Amino acid sequence: MGTAYEAEQLWPFFDIAAHIDANITTPFDVTEDLEQLLKDLAPTSLRTACSGAVRWAALRDAHPDLLENLPDPYEPLLRMYERGGGFYLQEYLDLNGVMIPLRTVETNASTTPFVTLSPATLDALDGEGESTYFAKISDGYPRLSPRGIVRRRIDDDQTRDEAFTRNLRWEPTEYLKLYDLGHNDIDHVQITEIEAATFIEQLGKGPITAMHIAGFFEELWPASFGTPVGSLLDFASSEPYEDSKEIAKYLLSGHDLFSVMGSSGDVLGSGETTLGGSWRMTPSGRMSTKG
Predict the structure, then answer these.
(1) What are the backbone angles phi and psi of residue 214, rounded to the nearest 5°?
(2) How far, in Å, are 34, 90, 150, 186 from residue 141 at the CA level?
(3) How many helices (H) and strands (E) does the chain have?
(4) Nearest 10 degrees: CA dihedral of 258, 186, 127, 41?
(5) Is 24 in a helix, a strand, or coil?
(6) What phi and psi values does residue 106 have, to the nearest 5 degrees?
(7) At CA 215, angle to CA 212 and CA 217, rounded to 5?
(8) Which of 52, 152, 248, 259 fits a 20 to 30 Å CA distance from 169?
(9) Are 196 and 149 in contact (CB under 8 A)?
(10) Distance set, CA 56 to CA 34, 116, 240 (Å)
(11) In percent, how much of the chain has pLDDT > 90?
């Protein structure tokens, strides 16, 4: 966009709206509040970026069709401010200790963008100290689709090794230490923060899209899991099945997956309650519910 409007010399922080429509204005009260806010802000590039973000919103309102398919160029910067970040602009872009060379519009346009602004992913990447990320790889699990990721985080001379788990959080791991001791059946490669973000984003979506409950009854799972096949009562019979004893034997031969405290009412209407009736069991590799 800087190139399109011949604003390369002003890049990276400038008022984009002014170059698209020089006549764009903001309401008087917004302009007044903005000027009051900006007078105490430093550096100058920060004031320019904040003013540009407000005027970009006004431009979007004035020309919705023009900007319909264009993402907000100020959103990543505003998200950084909201999360407590900041910067200083000198020969480098100083992100409170992380130094990024400015280079040129063309060279920055060719770099891999940081594709996510998801709060959950950004939370997962935040951490005190300096982090180095690794992807666990093996046959069938290449760098772009690893078995998992781990990070080594160094803060105040303390080293912490953590793995990002399916609980969607970083948890302590001994993997890197054991690998150094020769337990290297599963290899790893160092990856970028962008690659780590991509994995976290995909893992965060995985349990929602991949988990399906097959043929569940409305009494056993919440409606958020999908459309039930009906109520248990719809499938109850006034007469016992001929093989009811075999069915009961099959269900009782399961193995506990987990147990929870509490009691469950009899959904078939006997009025009785069963302690621990929400156990999940798996007989012969299948999932069933005792209640």
Answers:
(1) -85, 120
(2) 51, 42, 15, 10
(3) 9, 13
(4) -130
(5) coil
(6) -65, -45
(7) 110
(8) 259
(9) yes
(10) 13, 21, 70
(11) 14
Angle between helix 44-62 and helix 75-82 axes, rounded to 10 deg: 130
Cα–Cα distance, 41 to 50 (Å, whole number): 10
- In sign, the C-alpha dihedral spanning 139, 142, 148, 152 is positive
pLDDT at position 94, please?
78
Please name the residue ranges forming H helices in the chain.
Answer: 16-20, 28-38, 44-62, 75-82, 105-109, 119-125, 175-180, 193-210, 244-252
The burial of 132, by beta-carbon neighbours within 10 Å (0-12 exposed, 13-18 middle, 19 or more buried), is given as: middle
CB 74 within 8 A of CB 59: no
pLDDT tens digits, residue range 221-256? 666 556 666 666 666 666 777 777 887 777 777 655
Q: Domain spans of the chain?
A: 16-109, 119-209, 223-289
The single residue listed with the structure tokens 């993997």 is 175
pLDDT score for 132: 94
- How far is 260 from 275, CA to CA, in rounded Å? 9
* pLDDT tens string 157-169: 899 999 998 888 8
pTM above 0.85, yes or no: no
Q: Which of 152, 156, 190 is nearest to 174 (CA)?
A: 152
DSSP state of 170: E
Residue 105: partners with Cβ closer than 8 Å, 6 or more residues away: 2, 3, 8, 11
Q: How confident is the model over 185-218, as pLDDT tens digits?
A: 889 999 998 899 889 888 877 544 444 455 567 6
User: What 3-state class would DSSP assign to 263?
Assistant: strand
- Nearest C-alpha neighbor of 86 from the set 35, 131, 43: 43
